Amino acid sequence: MSDTLAPTGQVDTTGRDRASTPAPDRPAHDDAITTAKTQLAGAVARLGYDEGLHEMLATPRREINVSIPLRRDDGSTALFHGYRVQHNVSRGPGKGGLRYHPSVDVDEVRALAMWMTWKCAVVELPYGGAKGGVSIDPRQFSQAELERVTRRYTSEIMPMIGPARDIMAPDVGTDARTMAWVMDTYSVNQGYTIPGVVTGKPLEVGGSLGRATATSRGVVHSTRAALREEGLTLADVSVAVQGFGKVGSHAAAMYAEAGARVESVSDQYGGLYREGGIDMVALFEHVARTGSVVGFPEADPLGDQSLLELEVDVVVPAAVEGVLTHDNAPLVRARWVVEGANGPTSARADTILAERGIVVVPDILANAGGVIVSYFEWVQAQQAYWWTEAEIEQRLEERMLHAYDAVADVARREKISMRDAALMLSVRRVAEAHKIRGLYP
Ligand code: GLU
After folding, report:
1. Of the listed 37, 131, 201, 246, which one is catalytic?
2. What is d(CA 418, CA 237) in angstroms, rounded to the nearest whole number?
3. CA of 171 to the centre of ligand 1 (A)
4. What is the pTM of this model?
5. Which domains are seen in the chain, by residue range?
């Protein structure tokens, strides 16, 4: 991949393709960037926009590729590749997470940045969209090593970020601790404390109450809203949650608390199934003790069976992108797919699910709770005045339900899927902001 990299620290404002090759284990047509671009093309066609505007919306505004040398604890050195992509900043500063995962490449980060643009627009946050990533497996490195990687990455992308430029947050493989390192590195270099450069920080340094569980809470709100359209509540349904990390674990607990039967969960090591529902309190204790859902004695192992194909009412992919493809979409038996992850459904799978009458609550709406509370955190940091947890949760619910209703309304009116409706709404908002600002020069 190194031949695709610009020299360290070089800012590429053209956004032109220096694409890496697709991950070898995923066919190109199911790649995140292909999915994102296909979704955009659909929205552009529906909105009747011309090719020039389409090209602008499809291309990152600004991106940076950096190399990150790490001094390992044993004295040796290792080199990693990192990226920060600002897809669009027409509606405000770039906003989006930082991902640490071995499969990160520039195209994946571009796709994730584009989805952030639509996500912020669909829930009406005054942000554009951005994303960062480092191709590293954080499980293989000590905390001290990850701190050095994070600080070096931050100093390499320093000219591009800031509370009014581009605001980072946790994503797959990063957490509040990572954000504290980013915030500290940025602040030390500027000469004073600047909490607004990141969100999802620890409470001790200006984080927001309710941020850690916000994405999951939003996923549950949007599930509830989708069920309500059929006159159902969470107490009426069974649920399967793929991924037991920051999003999936809290979502599973909240579903169970609300009376849903959480019959299946999985993590990267394996899955569980129990008809009638898994005891979440006992499962959390097991995971705290062992680090995985695997081996939990009060449920059966899922074995080779795919969680996504189980006979449950609601399936919640809350791990990584590209898990629902044209191969397994015909096998989904749930009535609702609620996307806790970003980009879990390929464009071809989307068509199949829509044809089969399965309702997909799309990622840019379903998992927007995280960035909504990130926005609250940023607003609180800007005014140095913090809200109560009850205030945060109430405002989060209001925004989620308002956005859900707006998307459902478009879907009904235009007779299109929730995904197409969410994209239509958000792409239009971004395009309108762009048009009103006009082209410079
Ligand atoms: N990484 C999260 C997402 O994909 C949160 C982004 C943020 O809060 O900026 O939505």
Report:
1. 131
2. 20
3. 6
4. 0.93
5. 3-32+60-197 (3.40.50.10860), 214-366 (3.40.50.720)
